[in-house]
Design brief:
There is one protein chain. The protein is of the alpha+beta class and 458 residues long. It folds into two domains: 4-218, 2-Layer Sandwich (PmbA/TldD fold), CATH 3.30.2290.10; 225-456, no CATH class. The chain has helices at residues 4-16, 74-88, 118-133, 203-215, 233-245, 250-254, 257-262, 316-321, 355-360, 409-414; strands at residues 22-38, 41-59, 62-68, 102-105, 138-156, 161-179, 182-192, 225-231, 276-279, 300-305, 308-309, 330-331, 340-341, 345-348, 364-377, 380-392, 395-400, 404-408, 416-419, 424-426, 430-433, 436-440, 442-445, 448-456. Strands 1, 2, 3, 4, 5, 6 and 7 form a seven-stranded mixed beta sheet that branches. The longest helix is centred in the first third of the chain and has 16 residues, at 118-133.
């Protein structure tokens, strides 16, 4: 098969011919490997390669899209996408203007993680699994590892020709303990922009994870009600991503009349100490890139600044529809999908308080860490913390069963009254939307304190 660089060059001229108001193409080569354990058993292990591409056309406001993994008769693919767009288009094409770019962006990783022998990766995961199973009262475990190396070429009818490479590593471990009908679990998620070292040498973390799952079997359960809650960076990061970040994706706002009324720029959503950012321009994070999948340069976008809603996330189309600037947030998980508005690296900007100061200033409450599940529905959210500890007289006290946090995101943002100075980004997550999952993102926060948070319990 020809190199995708040559294929892309051969199609560049075809995209410039006026078959549509706008045309673009993406070509992709990828290598991946994975290892999955269910309990003690190795369930799946392997390595694969894939290549393919797509063409997207815009005619009179209607989109046409075709994907393929056979590269013969590529001009016909352009014609097919244009024909689809003509059938769908009934108005006026409108995309926010961006400067065409010609660029090559390397992965920044010296060693492709996919080329590390599977036997070497399996040996490391065997060590982690053995640590989990050497802990008494562990009933089962789950381990899922994956890595990838990808090269993507983007070109469009405006003259952009961008080559980007990236690598990715993720690891998720879960220890599940059981005794006398009681079951508790604790998880650990890690990831990096292709650096295998990020998941090496975590033996003590895995040991502590398994121990804590067992300890939770005898931990008391909190009485349900309103509490002052301190969230660690992991859970606070998940909160800002799931409960607020998705509401900031402009396709969701544009298509929902109720959200248009709520998500009004300039509206006060929190205290002046609250700042929330989404930025693919941050170096070295899993949600980082130089250009999105529409060839738009990544920027740092403030969503909330000093408590006020000041921005949202855009593709070129949504930016034009809402008369706002494009933000470089159009992303597709593979060449099989068109880009849609997605988050990148979403986080709460650190404040000035130390963690010790936040705890000392909390007379009574609950300290919650990590997470293992949750859901959002419009502005309502429910998250399960992975760990929980009582706070008594300004000190962290006994461990309790993991609790469930629930509430309205907007009132919860208003109730954030302390933000730490210890920003930490969780690199182990993956985001799902529109059938495209898991998309590499990261989310983070310093420790934060929320007053009047509703906790589910006995």
């Amino acid at each position: 098969m020809p190199e995708i660089d040559a294929i892309a060059r051969s199609l560049a001229d075809a995209l410039k011919k006026p078959k549509a108001d706008y045309l673009e193409a993406r070509f992709e080569e990828s290598q991946t490997s994975h290892i999955i354990y269910r309990g003690r058993e190795l369930e799946s292990i392997g390595r694969s390669t894939a290549s393919g591409g797509n063409v997207r056309a815009l005619v009179k406001g209607g989109w046409g899209f075709t994907s393929f993994n056979e590269f013969e008769k590529l001009p016909n693919r352009v014609a097919l996408a244009a024909e689809q767009a003509k059938a769908a288009g009934h108005s006026k094409s409108n995309l926010a203007q961006v400067e065409p770019a010609v660029d090559t962006v390397p992965s920044g990783v010296k060693k492709n993680p996919v080329t590390i022998p599977l036997a070497e990766k399996k040996k490391l995961l065997d060590e982690y699994n053995e640590i989990i199973w050497s802990t008494p009262q562990i009933q089962t475990s789950n381990i899922s590892y994956s890595d990838s190396r990808k090269k993507v070429i983007f070109l469009n009818s405006e003259g952009s020709f961008i080559t980007q490479e990236r690598a990715d590593v993720t690891l998720r471990l879960t220890a599940i303990a059981a005794k006398d009908g009681e079951v508790q679990q604790v998880g650990l998620s890690l990831g990096s922009r292709g650096h295998f070292s990020a998941i090496e040498g975590i033996h003590e973390q895995v040991r502590e994870m398994a121990r804590h799952a067992v300890e939770l079997l005898t931990a008391p359960q909190v009485k349900g009600g309103e509490y002052t809650v301190v969230l660690d960076p992991v859970l606070a990061g998940v909160f800002v991503h799931e409960a607020f970040g998705h509401l900031s994706e402009s396709d969701f706002v544009y298509e929902n009349e109720r959200m248009k009324e709520i998500m009004v720029l300039g509206k006060q959503f929190g205290a002046p100490l609250l700042n929330i950012v989404d930025s693919a321009a941050e170096p070295g994070l899993r949600g980082s890139f130089k250009y999105d999948d529409e060839g738009v340069r990544a920027v740092k976008t403030y969503l909330i600044k000093e408590g006020k809603l000041v921005g949202r996330l855009h593709s070129r189309e949504t930016a034009a529809k809402m008369n706002e600037k494009p933000t470089g947030n159009a992303r597709a998980i593979t060449y099989r999908f068109p880009p849609i508005v997605r988050m990148t690296n979403t986080y709460i900007v650190p404040g000035t308080a130390t963690f010790d100061e936040i705890i000392a200033d909390t007379k009574d409450g609950i300290y919650v860490k990590n997470w293992y599940g949750g859901m959002t529905s419009m502005e309502m959210f429910t998250f399960s913390a992975g760990e929980a500890y009582m706070i008594r007289n300004g000190k962290i006290a006994e461990a309790v069963r993991p609790v469930m946090l629930t509430g309205n995101v907007f009132s919860t943002l208003q109730n954030i009254d302390a933000i730490g100075n210890d920003l930490d980004m969780n690199q182990g997550g993956g985001c799902g939307k529109g059938g495209q999952s898991p998309l590499a993102v990261s989310n983070g926060s310093p420790h934060i304190r929320i007053r009047h948070c509703l906790i589910g319990g006995k």
